[in-house]
Design goal:
It is a single chain. The protein is of the alpha/beta class and 285 residues long. The chain has a single domain, classed as Alpha-Beta Barrel (TIM Barrel), CATH 3.20.20.80. The chain is built from nine helices and nine strands. The protein has an eight-stranded mixed beta barrel with strand order 1-2-4-5-6-7-8-9. β1, α4 and β2 form a beta-alpha-beta unit. α6 runs parallel beside α7. One of its GO terms (molecular function) is lysozyme activity. Keywords: Antimicrobial, Bacteriolytic enzyme, Disulfide bond, Glycosidase, Hydrolase, Secreted. This enzyme has both lysozyme (acetylmuramidase) and diacetylmuramidase activities.
Length: 285
């Protein structure tokens, strides 16, 4: 009987073997990573953008100081009540927010360089329809792509500005990295350059200086408490307590204070630091 050798077949003809090698090389090329310039970031989509809203990382890292659901009249002074929302709030009852006293709103438009809020239209146009002055914000991912790329993406997907008297300048949301290292794996100098790149591009696209949302603690840790943006970029600071507290270097006052992330109705709640007329002036540019 002929001897059988398991696992050993008749060798392929040279032409068939060459064809298989060529096919394998083609398949490998299809799945190979796209080459980038040396040191360039490869854009990747955020893993859970529906859980990344303005201030979503603050409470976990900084806690609260007996954060109130609303502020007593003596603390309010000449301020205007506002709200910020994102996709995790779904379809928002803007009439209820208006009736509760909210007069301005900020809506998350984008994150990184690929995510857009699926509820943006309902939230952005809905707030406008009730008479609120409203604007859009961008959740930054500095390790995802450049500041200019993200500013362009933001401006192209809801973050633009128009002089209609009801549109606020866009906001750059800089906070703790929800996907990894606190400062996105960047040095203070690199982060400052990234933020400057975003601001410069946004201004060239819209004619407006963007608002910066950041906490003093994060700003100190990740930028070395850089003070160079205070002249042109209004500050929005989160602090869930009885006052806005210490501000980052470069600002002598905050334009907006996010004082609670728990109510009293949907969204995080904020106070504009000034009269309604000053809020209108910010919208008008």
């Amino acid at each position: 009987m002929p001897e059988h050798h398991h696992g050993q077949g008749r060798p392929l003809p040279p032409t068939a073997a060459a064809a298989l090698v060529s096919l394998f090389a083609l398949l490998m090329s299809l799945f190979a990573p796209i080459p980038t310039a040396a040191g360039a970031a490869v854009p990747t989509g955020p893993g859970h953008p529906d859980r990344d809203w303005m201030g979503s990382t603050i409470r976990a890292h900084e806690g609260t100081e007996n954060a109130p659901d609303s502020l007593p009249d003596g603390v309010r002074g000449s301020t205007v009540e506002g709200v910020d929302v994102s996709s995790h709030n779904g379809n928002v009852s803007w009439k209820s927010l208006w009736n509760s006293g909210a007069r301005f709103a900020y809506v998350k438009a984008t994150e990184g360089s690929s995510y857009t809020n699926p509820y943006f239209a309902q939230q952005y146009t809905g707030s406008y329809g009730t008479g609120m002055i409203r604007g859009a914000y961008h959740f930054a991912l500095p390790d995802n792509s450049s500041g200019s790329v993200q500013a362009d993406f933001f401006a192209d997907h809801g973050g633009g500005w128009s002089g209609d008297g009801q549109t606020l300048p866009g906001v750059l949301d800089m906070e703790y990295n929800p996907y990894g290292s606190t400062c996105y794996g960047k040095s203070a100098a690199a982060l400052i350059d990234w933020i400057d790149d975003f601001f410069t591009t946004y201004r060239s696209r819209t004619g407006r200086d963007a608002v910066l949302y950041t906490s003093t603690t994060w700003w100190k840790k990740c930028t070395g408490n850089y003070g160079g943006f205070g002249t042109y970029n209004p500050l929005w600071v989160p602090r869930y307590g009885s006052s806005a507290g210490e501000l980052p270097a470069g600002w002598s006052f905050q334009t907006i204070w996010q004082y609670t992330d728990t109510g009293p109705t949907v969204g995080d709640h904020n106070r504009f630091n000034g009269t309604y007329g000053r809020l209108q002036a910010l919208a008008d540019g």
